Amino acid sequence: MKNRLKDEELVTQYLVTSQSTYTELLYRRYAQKVYRRCFSLIKDPVLAEDFTQEIFLRVLHNLPNFKERSTFSTWLYAIAYNYCMDQIRHANRQTTVGIGEELIQTLTDEESDTIEFQLSHLSRVLQYLPADERTLLRLKYEEDQDIKALAHTLNIKDSAIKMRLKRSRDKIRRLYYNLA
Questions:
Q1: For 143-168, how does the pLDDT look when each residue is reduced to its tens digit (9 = 90+)?
Q2: Which of 48, 81, 92, 149 could form a disulfide with 145 if both were Cys (CB 3.0 to 4.6 A apart)?
Q3: Would residue 129 be called left, alpha or beta, if left means φ above 0 and alpha means ψ between -120 and 50 degrees?
C-alpha cells in the first residue's frame, strides 16, 4: 500500500507520523537518480555517493519546509543540484592555478614574474564574475568538460552553453584590461 503512495503523500505521512518507512520509500525511489545527478556533475563515484547521502540528510531535515509548490522530485533535484554546485564552488575556491615545475625551471626570472603576475591578476578578475559564470568556466577549462556534458549538467542547450562561455570570456577580457 505504501509503495503506491505519491511522493507528496509519503512526505505528508512522514510529517504526521514520523515513521521512517515513508522516507525510506522516498530514498529507494530517488537515491540512484540523485547519485547519477551528482556523478554527472562531479565525475567522482565516491564523492557522488557521499553527496547523495548528505543530500538525503538535508532533504529529511528540510521536509517540513516542503510546500508542494513543485513536485517532490523537482524539489529534491533542486536541492541535489544546489548542493553539488556549492561543493564545486567550495573546491574551486581552494584550487590554485599551478605551473609545472619543469616549465618554471625553463623560464627566466622576468618571465616567471610576468606569468605569476598574470595568473594572480586573472585570479582576482575571476572573483568579479558571478559564481555560476566562474563555475561554468572552471568546469569547461579546468575540468575539461565538453559542451555536451555542460549542457546536460545544466539542462540547457549546447548553443546556450557556448553563448554563456563566450560572454564570460568577453567579460573576463574586459575586466582583465580595465583592472590592470
A1: 778 888 888 878 889 999 999 999 99
A2: 149
A3: beta
CATH of 98-178, one of 1.10.10.10, 3.90.1150.10, 3.30.1360.120, 1.20.1530.10: 1.10.10.10
Is the Cβ–Cβ distance between 15 and 62 less than 8 Å? no
Q: How far apart are CA 48 and CA 145, in angstroms?
A: 17
The 10s digit of each residue's pLDDT in 48-103 is 999 999 999 999 999 998 888 888 998 999 899 889 988 887 776 665 445 555 55
Residue 179 · residue 124 · CB < 8 Å: yes
Residues whose CB falls within 8 Å of the CB of residue 58, separated by 6 or more in sequence, listed in order: 79, 83
